[in-house]
């Protein structure tokens, strides 16, 4: 049964229908999903459904669709989830709970826009399309195949996907917010299992062979803002473009990494954003970069050579070097919060070293002053690499302040490309990640010239808090 608007006679897309969740009773569940319990829904499942466009009750009419037989995969999904190790406990628990109420789900919709159904007799129909949440996840595989064709090695996708061949040791990590878990721990694995000939209905693998299921679904929890749920209609919202007009990308990246909803719901407040930016990013990391580079530039004009090392010098160099295994290990386990905190702990050690050694008091012992600054700059260089995954924009600038050239932190870009099969051109997101920093301590070069730095991070005025709160709800 498909939803139609009685007043226009047109199909009502799922997201334009709201009603009460039949599973948990939440009264603002959407036609495709309940944000409260996370279950996937069809519009006809809703109790008291209503159109979000004009409030009318949709009419349900019989229509013809293809369905994915999810219950046929319940057992195989359960077995697969039982073998998962190292997932965030909340994600695994949530995924297993979804298996308790699996229903067959329509994989197509009555729409004119979208991907046509690639089957004889359906391909040319203008009124039926693949449901976006199915073609979105299939896109992980199809985009890999397209990428391989563009790379000049059309078989290269197999290194990530082929379960019995080139990709048997590949690991696949999927990053998302928790409202997308169902599509990645139930829908996409079911499609992959079915394609691989598994599940209660059995069968033979498709032409591509058996395919890899996700190694891990990495999901965060919800972020609220000033204690309220984000809602564009209620103006509880920060648009990324507006944010970037006023603040630096790394200031937001820092906040999300260090205080984001990694394993529990957390709250974004402008006061906390200000504090994190000014007290940690500017006064901690920015200050370390600034005072060590300026002092070396002013007194030596270049990275000074190191003379004999003291125990304190060696201790800081060891701490910085050890950061790579520690921070790297935490990133590998998706403990981003702990990882950036560990990197910032090394920053704190370096700041303490500078304060204890006080090189500004060593005007009459330039060799020792040079050694201290050399050690501090080596720590800056190492900390910069440790922070690069979190703060790529400022990492590039710090790399240049240290006299480095070329790309330190490669960035993705959007490139317009020709369609490989002769269709219209379209944009793809791509990047060259073969260049840039490696995850290791690289010795800095004495004699490399340094310029007096400009501050890498901007200190924010406390008045932004009230300004932003006023913007948040202009009616109050
Ligand atoms: Zn619900």
UniProtKB/TrEMBL annotation:
GO biological process assignments: methionyl-tRNA aminoacylation
Residue ranges of every copy of the Methionyl/Leucyl tRNA synthetase domain listed in the record: 3-292
Keywords: Aminoacyl-tRNA synthetase, ATP-binding, Ligase, Nucleotide-binding, Protein biosynthesis
Annotated SUPFAM superfamilies: Anticodon-binding domain of a subclass of class I aminoacyl-tRNA synthetases (SSF47323), Methionyl-tRNA synthetase (MetRS), Zn-domain (SSF57770), Nucleotidylyl transferase (SSF52374)
Record-linked Pfam families: Anticodon_3, tRNA-synt_1g
KW Cytoplasm (keyword) present: no
Catalytic activity: tRNA(Met) + L-methionine + ATP = L-methionyl-tRNA(Met) + AMP + diphosphate
GO molecular-function terms, A-Z: ATP binding; methionine-tRNA ligase activity
Residue span, Methionyl-tRNA synthetase anticodon-binding domain: 303-407
Claim: Protein biosynthesis is one of the keywords in the record: yes
Superkingdom, taxonomy of origin: Bacteria
InterPro entries with a match to the protein in the record: Anticodon_Met, Met-tRNA_ligase_1, Met-tRNA_synth, Methionyl/Leucyl_tRNA_Synth, MetRS_core, MetRS_Zn, Rossmann-like_a/b/a_fold, tRNAsynth_Ia_anticodon-bd
Top-level EC class: ligase
EC number: 6.1.1.10
A GO CC term assigned to this protein in UniProt: cytosol
Protein family (similarity comment): Belongs to the class-I aminoacyl-tRNA synthetase family. MetG type 1 subfamily.
PANTHER family: METHIONINE--TRNA LIGASE, METHIONINE--TRNA LIGASE, CYTOPLASMIC
Function: Is required not only for elongation of protein synthesis but also for the initiation of all mRNA translation through initiator tRNA(fMet) aminoacylation.
Protein name per its UniProtKB record: Methionine--tRNA ligase
Source species of the chain: Phytohabitans flavus
Gene coding for it: metG
């Amino acid at each position: 049964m498909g939803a139609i608007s009685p007043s226009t006679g047109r199909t009502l897309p799922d997201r334009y229908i709201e009603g009460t969740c039949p599973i948990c009773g939440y009264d603002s569940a959407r036609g495709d999903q309940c944000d409260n319990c996370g279950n996937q829904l069809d519009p006809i499942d809703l109790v008291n459904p209503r159109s979000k466009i004009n409030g009318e009750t949709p009419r349900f009419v019989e229509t013809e669709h293809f369905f994915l037989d999810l219950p046929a995969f319940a057992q195989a999904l359960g077995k697969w989830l039982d073998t998962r190790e190292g997932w965030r406990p909340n994600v695994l628990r949530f995924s297993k709970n979804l298996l308790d109420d699996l229903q067959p789900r329509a994989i197509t919709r009555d729409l004119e826009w979208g991907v046509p159904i690639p089957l004889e007799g359906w391909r040319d129909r203008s009124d039926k399309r693949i449901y976006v949440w199915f073609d979105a996840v299939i896109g992980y595989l199809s985009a890999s195949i397209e990428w391989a064709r563009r790379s000049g090695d059309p078989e290269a996708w197999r290194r990530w996907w082929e379960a019995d061949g080139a990709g048997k040791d590949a690991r696949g990590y999927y990053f998302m917010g928790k409202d997308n878990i169902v599509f990645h721990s139930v829908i996409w694995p079911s499609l992959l299992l079915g394609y691989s000939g598994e599940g209660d209905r059995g069968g033979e693998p498709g032409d591509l062979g058996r395919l890899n299921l996700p190694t891990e679904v990495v999901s965060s929890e919800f972020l609220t803002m000033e204690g309220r749920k984000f809602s564009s209609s209620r103006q509880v919202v920060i648009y990324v473009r507006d944010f970037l007009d006023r603040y630096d990308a790394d200031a937001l990246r820092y906040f999300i990494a260090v205080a984001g909803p990694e394993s529990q719901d957390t709250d974004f407040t402008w006061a906390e954003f200000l504090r994190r930016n000014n007290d940690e990013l500017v006064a901690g990391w920015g200050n370390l970069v600034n005072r060590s580079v300026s002092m070396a530039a002013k007194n030596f004009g270049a990275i000074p050579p190191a003379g004999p090392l003291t125990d304190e010098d060696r201790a800081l160099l060891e701490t910085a070097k050890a950061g790579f295994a520690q921070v790297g290990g935490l990133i590998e386990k998706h403990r981003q919060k702990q990882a950036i905190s560990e990197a910032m702990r090394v920053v704190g050690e370096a700041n303490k070293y500078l304060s204890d050694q006080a090189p500004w008091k060593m005007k009459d012992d330039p060799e020792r002053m040079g050694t201290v600054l050399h050690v501090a700059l080596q720590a800056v260089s190492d900390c910069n690499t440790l922070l690069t995954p979190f703060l790529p924009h400022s990492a590039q600038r710090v790399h240049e302040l240290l006299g480095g050239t070329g790309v330190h932190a490669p960035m993705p870009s959007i490139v317009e490309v020709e369609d490989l099969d002769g269709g219209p051109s379209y944009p793809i997101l791509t990047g060259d990640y073969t260049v840039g920093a490696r995850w290791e301590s690289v010795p800095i070069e004495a004699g490399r010239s340094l310029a007096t730095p400009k501050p890498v991070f901007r200190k924010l005025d406390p008045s932004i808090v009230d300004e932003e709160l006023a913007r948040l709800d202009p009616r109050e």
